[in-house]
């Protein structure tokens, strides 16, 4: 298989923020020509699909500044440096929704935006939930809602669910439902 590797010949740091950094990389293409890539470095993140015993999923509604709108999402948060993704998932779930989980399983991980960012998202399934009290960050305003799969699919249709991890969660849930029906 041909290698499409792009060797960085020069890196220009543009911005170093609290969470992300942006750099422009001059790269050598497989055909010997050069080009530039705008790259965002991100510490990585976790997301949780929290399923209640009565067959619903916990989502949070919050305003997302880059989108200038409110959407429903599964609970999520960024990783602290060196933090264990599972511990981060349990913490974010509890802070944002008040629920703690007795059971947590890693489902998969995926890159959220490989065209310009290295953000890797670990996605967990949480069950055996216990309700507690919400403790969002000082700058985080969130509202919790329990949804059925059918409600989730409707919210996706109306673009009130409109981000990749939550769409993944709905597809995962639908697939799980299907497998259960087929008795697999
Ligand atoms: Mg969050």
Automatic annotation (TrEMBL):
* Superkingdom classification of source: Bacteria
Domain Nudix hydrolase, first and last residues per copy: 41-169
Cofactors that this protein relies on = Mg(2+)
Which PROSITE patterns does this UniProt record tie to the protein?
A: NUDIX, NUDIX_BOX
Key words of the record: Hydrolase
State the Gene Ontology BP annotations: nucleoside phosphate metabolic process; ribose phosphate metabolic process
Matching entries from SUPFAM superfamilies are given as: Nudix (SSF55811)
- Which molecular function terms from Gene Ontology are attached? hydrolase activity
Q: What is this protein called?
A: NUDIX hydrolase
InterPro entries attached to this UniProt entry? NUDIX_hydrolase-like_dom_sf, NUDIX_hydrolase_CS, NUDIX_hydrolase_dom
Which CDD domains does UniProt cross-reference here?
A: NUDIX_ADPRase_Nudt5_UGPPase_Nudt14
Which cellular component appears as one GO term in the record? cytosol
